[in-house]
Design goal:
Elements lengths: L3 H8 L3 H8 L3 H4 L3 H14 L5 H8 L4 E6 L5 H14 L5 E6 L6 H9 L4 E5 L3 H13 L4 E4 L9 E5 L1 H14 L5 E5 L5 H16 L9 E3 L4 H12 L7 E4 L2 H13 L9 E6 L12 E4 L2 H20 L9 E3 L2 E3 L13
Helix pairs in contact: 1-2, 1-4, 6-13, 7-8, 9-10, 11-12
Length: about 350
């Protein structure tokens, strides 16, 4: 087995210098870049592999970034994970999924602490667990980044897409097509993302001078039957909309199907826009116009913020917990079209 002494001999430095470099503390103690590269090259040539278990026992931290999720089967999780891994692995870190398939509770946070990660990414963490997460990770000086949540995160870094601007793009697109009667189907009132997107819808409608009649905002509960009923209520409205903006792609596809079953053609009679740009969006009939969220970029940005925070802590400094806001992008497909002539 290759030891640090072997690497020190090959690189022509002391064993303590090797230890500092391999534990990523070289910046804190002022190791020259040329020396750092010489140590890393020697380690690579000798085939050195660090013992992560031993490292964690000595330092209290592993080279693992924990990704805390409640439902690991979702496409969003896979795309964020891919971006996080692409950012972490070239820097010698690994991303570990810490998941509990079902309701959130404090046990998932306990499992996360047990891995002694260098940082924690949390996706859709409910506000009820924020305080527990902050206290537990703070006890071990582990930085935390919460992804894609519109709920306030005091003391934690928040990494999210700019939903307000994304919704504005969607409404601007529909307005540009001549639509004036634009409705909205949200998720649940308890969802931060749904609440923020409803706010974005109302802001954009006001900016374009468009009214929001009573019952033009419906709630689909992120669920098939409820979203279908929400669409039915809009189609039964005394002034049915010519376009509908939905808080997610699944709701948008359900709305499109519900309209078609009523003989309302999409997009000729009703334009439909979603949010997220999941894989399902491009295979809708018609393919769905939607606001694409940069999920891989969110994962990469979260890892960058966590590693920067970890380095600050190693230097004895308090890390920043600033918000990281990434842009969304409208993807126009076949589910939107010019408003009917009678409405322009």
């Amino acid at each position: 087995m290759v030891t640090m002494s072997d690497i020190a001999s090959r690189a022509g430095v002391s064993r303590s210098t090797v230890s500092v470099v391999l534990n990523n503390k070289d910046a804190a103690v002022g190791i020259a870049e040329e020396t750092r590269r010489r140590v890393l090259n020697a380690a690579r040539q000798l085939g050195y592999r660090p013992n992560e278990v031993a490292r964690a026992m000595v330092t209290g931290k592993s080279h693992v970034v924990a990704f805390l999720v409640a439902d690991p089967s979702r496409e969003v999780v896979a795309r964020i994970l891919a971006g996080a891994m692409n950012e972490a692995e070239p820097q010698g870190y690994f991303v570990k999924l810490v998941a509990r398939d079902g309701a959130w509770d404090e046990r998932i946070i306990e499992r996360c602490v047990e891995t002694r990660p260098v940082g924690v990414m949390g996706l859709y963490v409910p506000p009820s667990l924020n305080e527990c997460l902050r206290e537990e990770m703070g006890r071990y000086r582990i930085p935390v980044a919460i992804l894609d949540s519109s709920f306030p995160q005091p003391g934690l870094t928040r990494v999210l897409s700019d939903d307000l601007e994304g919704v504005h793009q969607a409404i601007a697109h529909l307005h540009g097509l001549g639509h004036r009667r634009i409705a909205h189907i949200g998720g649940t009132r308890a969802s931060g993302a749904s609440t923020l997107r409803e706010e974005g819808y109302r802001r954009a409608m006001a900016r374009f001078g468009l009214p929001v009649p009573e019952r033009y905002v419906q709630w689909g509960e992120w669920e098939i039957d409820a979203a279908g009923r929400a669409t039915e209520r809009l189609l039964d409205h005394p002034e049915p909309p010519t376009a509908v903006f939905c808080a997610d792609d699944k709701t948008a596809l359900i709305a499109s199907r519900a309209a078609s079953r009523r003989g309302v053609r999409v997009p000729e009679d009703l334009s439909v826009v979603g949010f997220a740009d999941l894989e399902m969006a491009r295979y809708g009939n018609p393919a769905l116009t939607t606001v694409a969220q940069p999920f891989a970029d969110l994962g990469a940005a979260a890892v960058r913020s966590l590693l920067e925070a970890a380095r600050s802590l190693q230097r004895g400094e308090e890390p920043d917990t600033a918000e990281v806001l990434l842009p969304n992008r409208l993807v126009v497909r076949e589910s939107t079209a010019r408003a009917p002539l009678s409405e322009r």
